[in-house]
C-alpha cells in the first residue's frame, strides 16, 4: 500500500469516527498526500481507494469534515487525468449529486457566523468537484470505456448527459474556469465529427440546464479583454449555434420566447469575434435565424410594433443576417428562400420606416426610439441580395422595396451611415434594370427624390421631348470624350 493510499484510509477512518480529536494531525498528513499526487500523477492510488472517497457522504454542517473531504477530493482531482475508466467518472457525478442534496443530519439550527463558514467550505468542495470533472478525459473517450463495460441495450445515447443535466439543474455553484474547462473538454474536440455527435446528444435534451449555464457563462465574457477561458467558451458556443440540431432545440414549444431572444442576442454578439465560418455552419445558423425572423417578423403589425419581446427578436436576427450577408453561401441561402423571406423583410422595413421616428441632428440628445440600426441592417441585406441579381432586383421593386430604399437616402442618427448604405443599394437595384431605372427617373422628374442621390450612384436623368430617361454618367462622359477626339 502506498503512502497516499494509507493516508486516504486514515482520513476516511477519522471522518467516520465520532471522535473529533486529532484533526490537525490528520489534515497535515492528508496535505502531504495531496501534494504528492499533484507533483506526480503516477503516484499509486487504487480504484478501490478512489471509490471509497466518492462513496463517503460528508455532513455539510461540519467544517472539519468538509475540509478533510475536500482534501480527499483533491487527490481524486489530481488522478482524474489518468482515469480513463468511465465508471469512475459516473461515480464522481453521482457523488457530486449526493453532496448537493445533503441536508443537515442533526436538524440543528446554527449561528449565522457558523452558517457562513459552512457555506464557504461547501462552495470550496463543489469547486473541487468541478475541477475533478474538468480533469477527466474527453467525453467520447469515457463513453467508449462505458460501452465496453455495459451491454449496448443497457445504455442509452443520452444516459450520461441526462445525469449531467440533472447536476446542472440542482447545483447553484458554478466556478467559472473549471466549468468552462469541463464543458469544453466534454463537448469540443479537434475532430468535427466527434464534436458534432457530442452536441447532437446534448441538443436532444429539451429542458436543457447545460445550455442555460452556457448562456450564463457567455454573459460573464469581457469582450474588451478576452481571456484564454473565454476563447475556449467562444469556440464551444460557435459549434453550438451552428449545429444542425440547434434550430430544432431553440424552436421547440418548451423553449420560451426569452430563451430564443437570449440565444439570438448571444449569436449576434459572438459573430463579431470571428469570420471563419464554413458553408455548413452558415446554413445551420441561417436556418434557425431566418425561421425565427419570418415567424416573428410576419406577426409584426403597427399595433405591436412597440412590443419589446418582438423587437428584441427581430433586431438580433437582422443583425446576424446583415453580418453574414457578405458570404456567398448566405446570399445563396436567402435567395433560395426569397419567396418567403423577402416579403417579410420588406414588410418589416415598411412598418419600421413608416412608424418609427427618424433621429436628426435637431433631435433631443436623450430621445430614444425603437429598432435602432434595423433599417441599416435591412438595407445591407438587400444590397447583398440584389447585387448583380436581376430576379431579386425585380422582386424588391414589386414588393415596394425600391421606394423604401430611396426614402432612406437621408441622415438618420438612429441608423448611422444609412444614407451611404441606401445610396449603394440604389446603385445595385438600378444596375442593368430598365424597369427600376424608369421608376427612379419618373420619381426624380417629379422631384420626389433628390437629384443628388442619383448623382452619387452615377446616374443622370434627362427629359427629352417629354420623355424621361436615365443614363449612367460615365456613359455620357465616355461619349463626350469620343466626340472631342
UniProtKB/TrEMBL annotation:
One of its GO terms (cellular component) is cytosol. Belongs to the ataxin-10 family. It comes from the Eukaryota. InterPro entries: ARM-like, ARM-type_fold, Ataxin-10/CTR86_families, Ataxin-10_domain. Signal peptide: none annotated. Residues 375-470 form the Ataxin-10 domain. One of its GO terms (biological process) is cell division. Keywords: Cell cycle, Cell division. It comes from Lodderomyces elongisporus (strain ATCC 11503 / CBS 2605 / JCM 1781 / NBRC 1676 / NRRL YB-4239) (Yeast). May play a role in the regulation of cytokinesis. It holds the Pfam family Atx10homo_assoc. This is Ataxin-10 homolog. SUPFAM superfamilies: ARM repeat.
Amino acid at each position: 500500500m502506498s503512502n497516499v493510499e494509507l493516508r486516504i484510509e486514515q482520513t476516511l477512518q477519522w471522518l467516520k469516527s465520532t471522535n473529533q480529536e486529532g484533526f490537525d494531525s490528520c489534515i497535515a498528513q492528508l496535505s502531504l498526500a495531496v501534494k504528492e499526487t499533484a507533483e506526480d500523477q503516477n503516484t499509486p492510488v487504487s480504484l478501490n481507494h478512489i471509490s471509497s472517497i466518492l462513496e463517503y457522504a460528508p455532513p455539510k454542517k461540519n467544517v472539519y469534515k468538509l475540509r478533510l473531504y475536500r482534501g480527499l477530493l483533491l487527490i481524486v482531482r489530481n488522478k482524474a487525468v489518468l482515469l480513463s475508466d468511465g465508471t469512475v467518472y459516473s461515480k464522481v457525478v453521482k457523488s457530486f449529486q449526493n453532496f448537493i442534496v445533503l441536508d443537515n443530519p442533526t436538524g440543528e439550527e446554527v449561528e449565522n457566523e457558523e452558517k457562513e463558514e459552512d457555506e464557504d467550505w461547501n462552495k470550496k468542495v463543489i469547486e473541487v468537484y468541478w475541477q475533478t470533472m474538468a480533469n477527466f478525459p474527453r467525453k467520447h473517450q469515457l463513453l467508449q470505456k462505458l460501452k465496453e463495460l455495459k451491454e449496448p441495450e443497457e445504455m442509452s445515447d443520452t444516459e450520461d448527459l441526462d445525469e449531467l443535466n440533472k447536476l446542472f439543474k440542482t447545483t447553484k455553484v458554478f466556478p467559472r474556469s473549471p466549468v468552462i474547462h469541463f464543458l469544453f473538454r466534454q463537448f469540443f474536440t479537434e475532430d468535427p465529427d466527434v464534436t458534432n455527435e457530442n452536441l447532437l446528444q446534448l441538443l436532444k435534451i429539451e429542458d436543457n440546464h447545460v445550455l442555460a449555464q452556457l448562456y450564463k457563462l457567455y454573459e460573464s465574457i469581457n469582450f474588451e479583454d478576452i481571456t484564454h477561458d473565454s476563447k475556449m467558451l467562444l469556440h464551444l458556443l460557435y459549434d453550438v449555434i451552428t449545429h444542425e440540431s440547434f434550430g430544432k432545440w431553440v424552436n421547440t414549444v418548451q423553449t420560451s420566447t426569452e430563451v430564443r431572444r437570449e440565444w439570438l442576442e448571444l449569436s449576434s454578439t459572438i459573430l463579431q469575434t470571428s469570420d471563419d465560418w464554413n458553408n455548413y455552419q452558415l446554413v445551420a445558423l441561417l436556418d434557425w435565424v431566418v425561421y425565427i425572423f419570418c415567424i416573428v417578423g410576419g406577426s409584426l403589425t403597427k399595433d405591436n410594433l412597440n412590443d419589446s419581446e418582438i423587437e428584441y427578436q427581430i433586431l438580433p436576427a437582422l443583425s446576424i443576417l446583415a453580418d453574414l450577408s457578405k458570404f456567398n453561401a448566405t446570399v445563396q441561402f436567402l435567395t433560395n428562400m426569397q419567396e418567403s423571406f423577402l416579403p417579410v423583410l420588406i414588410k418589416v422595413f415598411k412598418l419600421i420606416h413608416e412608424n418609427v421616428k427618424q433621429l436628426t441632428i435637431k433631435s433631443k440628445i436623450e430621445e430614444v426610439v425603437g429598432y435602432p440600426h434595423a433599417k441599416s441592417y435591412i438595407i445591407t441585406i438587400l444590397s447583398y441580395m440584389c447585387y448583380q441579381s436581376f430576379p431579386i432586383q425585380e422582386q424588391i421593386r414589386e414588393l415596394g422595396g425600391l421606394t423604401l430604399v430611396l426614402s432612406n437616402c437621408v441622415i438618420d442618427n438612429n441608423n448611422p451611415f444609412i444614407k451611404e448604405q441606401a445610396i449603394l443599394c440604389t446603385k445595385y437595384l438600378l444596375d442593368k434594370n430598365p424597369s427600376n431605372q424608369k421608376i427612379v427617373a419618373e420619381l426624380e422628374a417629379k422631384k420626389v427624390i433628390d437629384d443628388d442621390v442619383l448623382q452619387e450612384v452615377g446616374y443622370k436623368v434627362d427629359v427629352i421631348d417629354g420623355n424621361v430617361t436615365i443614363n449612367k454618367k460615365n456613359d455620357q462622359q465616355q461619349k463626350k470624350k469620343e466626340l472631342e477626339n
